[in-house]
Design goal:
heterodimer, A: 432 residues, mainly alpha, two-stranded antiparallel ribbon, 16 helices, globular, B: 270 residues, Rossmann fold, six-stranded mixed β-sheet, four-stranded antiparallel β-sheet, LivM-like (chain A), transmembrane helix (chain A), ABC_transp_permease (chain A)
Chain lengths: 432, 270
């Protein structure tokens, strides 16, 4: 029996991997930026945007990984739980359309609201098989979106306080991005005198030509990265524990887990509520960052994107969820428009309006119209790229980039205890 | 590890019924799977449950362990009625089963499979598995559990497979793993559904030795099995089911001679 000599803890391996992937992404986008002739401000701004989307998708994929990767709960209502989080925060903290409470109360309240809606979904759905559970969550997420759109919730009163979701025009509230003003500006007023971190960062940024607004966004993005790390740590702890083992047992064979005395219903409710709260939080950090949301930001497609990120990275792996978020944001989301800009800037391409016009010149070995057509309809073609990536991945690595679900669910080292000598300990004390 | 004195049979009279099933009935639509079945299993025995295919043996197991709720009848375990309780509640009482087709957790390692089973794990509470100080206790308990798990794997001689995924094991090894896992819950009685199915002869011998070892430690067994040699040579009592009802109950020698049993079940063989 060879004992495994894993000298490095899991998180070190994960950190190296994610750090490497991030650096590689930065390198590619920096090259893109240089090719396009962007200045330092433009490049930093680009990297900030890529990191922002990587972080929010990583947060959502991590939360979904707890549901789907660990527990096998097929939740395809991610967008709905995000919406609950953001709107609950909005109703609590908006001055015009809500109670006008401090933002942190709104954030906590948003997480609680998302968890409670998760409970509401989990209670009846617990008895259902995975596929029916999926339908319930998808239905719920659409019900939430339609409800937020409805005119009856546009404005209502609770205890003399006038509230409202604002229907299709959405709700305005203090932007979560505003929290960075506390460390950047004196009196937390954007554009005021620099304070604390601000007095350090702004002059530094100015010398290399980065604008204050980019600095502000970058600091907020850094906060998101901190949240990603926090999610990772908490979820890894849950995974590497007896509770995580029960979750895996539910995923693998719930009947068997129950017959071993595991109270799987309680575990499922807990984990579903926790995951929903995290989805709500991720929603607030993402969709709430601009200070206004509309129901159209919570279409079911958002759930699909999160699933793509999780599957690309590898479900069952927390590091995989983060890498998946990064790959999705960089390669599938932010990358293609950049390629378009580079092509348009460097090649004289026309944009045919039909595929026929694009393909016909191929007979004369003229590929430019086709390139132009592809580039011109990139917004649609992006979805095809996502599909192709998924198909290729399923053929080449069905478990995702980092999948294999091999993160061991135990709170301690699993090596055979060495203190026992020989086998007499087994014969004498081997009874359970 | 606990001493044998903890096993339940030591303090009590042998011959007392540990499990009693009375007038159990379960129908699926128009099909009566279990029809008024009554039997009991004495503490400390290895009891065989036999019958032709479709006799209702597995459904009876499912009704006893809470997978199905019986339409009528009662199940009493260790002096307490457990009819219609949930599977985890019944397993908590010390009545644990294995399945006809082994239900290992395929994408978990053998060691993880075995580690999942023990009862009262502190770390099964969500906050304890995350909270910094509370987690220390979890880790301490986990170290004991790991040691115990290795011992159990050694007992079943599958310790060399500890780090393999359970899904890669052979059919017979899965049966061993399932039994090992069930034992980790520290049950007082085990219901084994065809534990020898798909197990090669040498492994079967090993498994039977294990069962006898465990019986000596005070465990009670109810075993569904099709292999008549196993039933006749290893069980003290045999219950014969036929068309959902209990046809006969008694010692193997007597069952062998029973005309009704021969007609219903053994007839083709003799």
């Amino acid at each position: 029996m060879s004992e495994h000599g894993d000298s490095r803890p899991q998180w070190v391996t994960d950190a190296l991997l994610i750090g490497g992937a991030l650096l590689a992404t930065y390198a590619v986008f920096t090259v893109f930026g240089l090719v396009l002739g962007l200045d330092v401000n433009g490049i930093v701004s680009t990297l900030q945007r890529v990191t922002f989307f990587a972080a929010v998708y990583a947060l959502l994929a991590l939360a979904l990984n707890l549901h789907w990767g660990y527990t096998g709960l097929f939740n395809i209502g991610v967008a709905g739980f995000m919406a609950v989080g953001v709107y609950a925060m909005g109703l609590l903290s908006s001055a015009e359309q809500g109670f006008g409470l401090p933002l942190w109360i709104g954030v906590v309240g948003g997480m609680i609201a998302a968890a409670l809606v998760g409970l509401l979904a989990a209670l009846p759905a617990l008895r259902l098989r995975a596929d029916y559970f999926a339908i319930v969550t998808l239905g719920l997420s659409e019900i939430i979106r339609r409800a937020l759109l409805s005119s009856s919730l546009r404005e209502f009163e609770i205890g003399g306080q006038s509230l409202g979701t604002g229907g299709g025009s959405g709700i305005g509230f203090p932007a979560t991005e505003g929290v960075v003003d506390y460390v950047l500006y004196a009196g937390a007023e954007r554009g005021g005198d620099p304070a604390l971190l601000g007095s350090l960062l702004f002059p530094l940024a100015e010398t290399v030509g980065i604008q204050p607004s980019v600095v502000r966004s970058s600091v907020y993005t850094a906060l998101l990265v901190v949240f990603v790390i926090a999610f990772y740590l908490v979820l890894s702890r849950i995974g590497a524990s007896p509770f995580g083992r029960v979750l895996k047992g539910i995923r693998e064979d719930e009947v068997a887990a129950r017959s071993l005395g595991k109270h799987t219903n309680t575990a499922k409710i807990k984990v579903f509520m926790l995951g929903c709260a995290l989805m709500g939080l991720a929603g607030m950090l993402w969709q709430g960052s601009r200070g206004t949301v509309t129901p159209s930001q919570f279409m079911p497609i958002v759930t699909f994107y999160v699933f793509v990120a999780l599957i690309v990275g590898g479900s069952g792996s927390n590091a995989g969820s983060i890498v998946g978020g990064l790959v999705f944001a960089a390669a599938l989301w932010e990358g293609p428009p950049f390629v378009r800009r580079i092509i348009r800037a460097n090649m004289d391409v026309s944009t045919p309006t039909t595929i026929y016009d694009a393909l016909l010149p191929l007979a004369d070995l003229d590929v430019l119209p086709l390139v132009g057509y592809l580039v011109g309809s990139l917004d649609e073609i992006r979805f095809m790229i996502v599909g192709i990536v998924l198909v290729v991945l399923m053929l080449w690595r069905p478990d995702g980039l980092l999948g294999h679900r091999k993160e061991i669910a135990a709170a301690t080292d699993l090596s055979r205890p060495s203190r026992r000598a020989g086998r007499e300990g087994v014969e004498e004390g081997g009874d359970p | 590890m606990s001493e044998t004195s903890e096993a339940p049979a030591e303090q009590r009279d042998a011959g007392e019924a540990l499990l009693a099933v009375e007038n159990l009935r379960k129908t699926f639509g128009g099909i009566v799977a279990v029809d008024d079945a009554s039997f009991s299993v004495e503490r400390g025995t290895i009891t065989g449950l036999i019958g032709p295919n479709g006799a209702g043996k597995s459904t009876t197991f499912d009704c006893i362990t809470g997978v199905y709720t019986p339409d009528a009848g009662t199940v009493t375990f260790d002096g307490e009625e457990i009819t219609g309780r949930s599977p985890p509640a019944i397993a908590d009482r010390g009545l644990v089963r294995t399945f006809q087709i082994a239900r290992e957790f395929p994408e978990m390692t053998v060691l993880e499979n075995v580690l999942l089973a023990p009862k009262d794990q502190l770390g099964e509470s969500l906050w304890r598995s995350v909270a910094p100080i509370a987690r220390r206790e979890v880790v301490e308990q986990e170290e004991e559990l790991v040691e115990q798990a290795w011992e159990t794997l050694e007992f079943f001689e599958i310790d060399h497979l500890a780090r393999e995924y359970a899904g890669t094991l052979s059919g017979g090894q899965r049966k061993l793993l399932e039994l090992a896992r069930a034992l980790q819950t520290e049950p007082s009685m085990l219901l084994l559904d065809e534990p020898m199915a798909g197990v090669n002869p040498s492994l079967e011998k090993k498994l039977l030795e294990r069962v006898h070892d465990l019986q000596e430690r005070g465990y009670t067994f109810l075993i569904v099995e099709h292999d008549m040699d196993v039933i006749m040579n290893h069980c003290e009592r045999v219950i014969v089911m036929h068309q959902g009802s209990v046809l006969a109950e008694g010692e193997p020698a007597a069952i062998k001679e029973d005309e009704r049993v021969i007609e219903a079940y053994l007839g083709g063989e003799n």
